[in-house]
Amino acid sequence: MPVTKRCTVCARFRGYEVEDRYCVVCGNESLEGECACGRRYDYLRTDDDDITLHCPRCGKVLRGRQKEYDG
């Protein structure tokens, strides 16, 4: 069953299988299935790449590229 995961490097949300570990956009092994507060990302649509997103539980900004991302 697909789940929504976020790449911690390029900050893109995509649907993945539970066992998937690598980002399809940047290739890094940095996928996470939930926010640091424990809220799963399954409520997000994966086509929301152009808008600012925040976690509804803790308010953390979820959208935006990290400084380490070069591409």
Concise summary:
By secondary structure, the protein is mainly beta. It has strands at residues 3-7, 13-16, 31-32.
Question: What does it look like?
Answer:
- This protein has 71 residues and is mostly beta strands.
- The chain has one domain.
- The protein contains no helices and 3 strands.
- The relative contact order is 0.28.
Give me the number of helical elements: 0
Q: In one word, what is the shape? A: globular
Report the structural category.
Answer: mainly beta
How many beta-strand runs? Answer: 3
Radius of gyration: 11 Å
Give the termini separation: 30 Å
User: Which percent band covers the strand fraction?
Assistant: 15-25%
Query: What's the SSE pattern?
Result: EEE
Number of domains: 1
Question: Which percent range fits the helix content?
Answer: under 10%
Physical arrangement of strands within the biggest beta sheet: 2-1-3
Residue-averaged pLDDT, rounded? 83
Low confidence ranges: none
Largest sheet data: 3 strands, antiparallel
